[in-house]
Amino acid sequence: MTRLFVTGASGHLGRATLRHLLETQKIAPSDIVAGSRDPSKLTEFSDLGVETRKVDFDDREGLVTAFTGIDRLLIVSTDELATPGKRLKQHRNAIEAAVAAGVDHIVYTSMPNPDRSLVTFAPDHLGTEQAIKASGLPYTILRNAWYADNHLMAMPHNLQAGSWYTAMGDGRVSNISRDDCARAAAAALAKPPVGNATLTLTGPESFTASEIAAIVSAVAGKPLQVVPVSDEQLAEGMTAAGLPGFVVTMLVSADANIRAGNFDLVTNDFQALTGATPQSLKAFFEDHRAALA
């Protein structure tokens, strides 16, 4: 029996990965362990026979206990972005615990080009990748492209106003849905690629802001004009809207990264890993038409 562990199981990506393990990969619930800081949030899975364990990335010894008896471990990157350096420390705790617990294989959710990315949290991913490689454990690193889901944070407001203020410039981005990334993570856990692998998961096509706006406008049935702004103007607008400082800085850096061409990637890695075709951006927005409204 091979036991598979999903950290961050109560979050969006972790929860979707569990669903794909059960439904797409047809893994028996008894072979799956779901970890969360609050296991009580996982009753929908424990009711199916999935074991749940407490996972606190700040508690290294607790992680060793949680990972004991596990063959393959999915480390979903934590959401600790407000305090610089804390996220990487948490990830290192998990890697060290995996070694101590005798885990056979690590799967990690990273990002494209973390060595040159301008996104504020790129050093966390680069440092984690380096720590995984230094651990000596076999690994599969999944470099997830910028989620299509991220558009849903501001796009409803943009449609209401009829304007999308962006500092993407002429840059292109190939978005992939979070659910597709979860599907890939489940596939990597169920049947990892032979040897160590670093895969970049992207959507099927790369788009400019104007092209994305045209897709959104057609799906929502509302006009949407792209308004190019500078990084400084974008930061001012987000700050005025009440977003926390670290979120403003992160979102501005993401636009800068697109503008620099670091998210302009289209690969076949998702299809090679899952045997499926990634969802198109248009199909994603069609599935989330209600959210756009």
Q: Quick gist of this model?
A:
The chain has 293 residues and is of the alpha/beta class. It has a domain at 4-145 and 178-202 and 265-277: 3-Layer(aba) Sandwich (Rossmann fold).
3D architecture notes:
The chain has a domain at 4-145 and 178-202 and 265-277: Rossmann fold, CATH 3.40.50. The protein is 44% helix and 14% strand. The protein has 13 helices and nine strands. The protein has helices at residues 12-23, 43-46, 60-67, 86-101, 122-135, 155-161, 178-190, 209-220, 231-240, 245-259, 269-274, 281-287, 289-292, and strands spanning 4-6, 32-36, 51-54, 72-75, 105-110, 139-144, 163-166, 197-201, 225-228. Helix 1 (12-23) packs across helix 7 and helix 8 (209-220) runs parallel beside helix 12 (281-287). The longest helix is centred in the first third of the chain and has 16 residues, at 86-101. The mean pLDDT is 97.
Name the descriptors.
single chain; 293 residues; alpha/beta; Rossmann fold; 7-stranded parallel beta sheet; two-stranded parallel sheet; 13 helices; 9 strands; 14% strand; NAD(P)-bd_dom; Nucleoside-diphosphate sugar epimerase; NmrA-type_oxidoreductase
How is the topology of this model organized?
Elements: E1 4-6, H1 12-23, E2 32-36, H2 43-46, E3 51-54, H3 60-67, E4 72-75, H4 86-101, E5 105-110, H5 122-135, E6 139-144, H6 155-161, E7 163-166, H7 178-190, E8 197-201, H8 209-220, E9 225-228, H9 231-240, H10 245-259, H11 269-274, H12 281-287, H13 289-292
Parallel strand pairs: 1-2, 1-4, 2-3, 4-5, 5-6, 6-8, 7-9
Helix pairs in contact: 1-7, 3-4, 4-5, 8-12, 9-10
